[in-house]
Amino acid sequence: MKFKLLIMAAFCILLSSCALTTSYDFDKTVNFSNYNSFTIYQQGIDKLKLNDIDKSRIIRALEQQLKSKGLTESTNGDLIVNVLASSKKVINVDNDPYWNGPWGWGYYWAPSSTVYESREGKLTFHLVDSKKNILVWEGMVDGFDVGNIRNKDEQISKAIQKIFNYYPPRKKDNSYY
């Protein structure tokens, strides 16, 4: 029974370490229903230190999310969307003690540690009112494994979907999650 609880606790810790973290902020004086179209700021995309495949993934997922919110893509949109991307090195230490000692040697405990590093990515989205040239909404999502190439498309799509769950913002909600 205790072993099952230990396994379940380890699984929960593993899941929580892989979770995406989001936060957003917005201008509470803005009426977001006035925005009907968007333009992706190409100069911002060009400045991203990402390969072209990842840039395309971000643009594709971003366009999909904004269109699902009722916005249309336009060359002179009501909102200008800027994207920032960064990553940081994360060092993980897994302590895994084990028991050993059959065949008359007695039982003993021996610690074992595994140290590995990964890169954790962060995406930031700025929605700027194109007429007033002011920031009206900012969303950030971080915590996805940049080095995991096998499901990078899915990770980027889920990350963008998760942050745009908070657009358009609801007035009664706290702006930070």
UniProtKB/TrEMBL annotation:
<feature type="domain" description="DUF4136">
    <location>
        <begin position="23"/>
        <end position="169"/>
    </location>
</feature>
<feature type="signal peptide">
    <location>
        <begin position="1"/>
        <end position="21"/>
    </location>
</feature>
<keyword id="KW-0732">Signal</keyword>
<dbReference type="InterPro" id="IPR025411">
    <property type="entry name" value="DUF4136"/>
</dbReference>
<dbReference type="Pfam" id="PF13590">
    <property type="entry name" value="DUF4136"/>
</dbReference>
<protein>
    <recommendedName>
        <fullName>DUF4136 domain-containing protein</fullName>
    </recommendedName>
</protein>
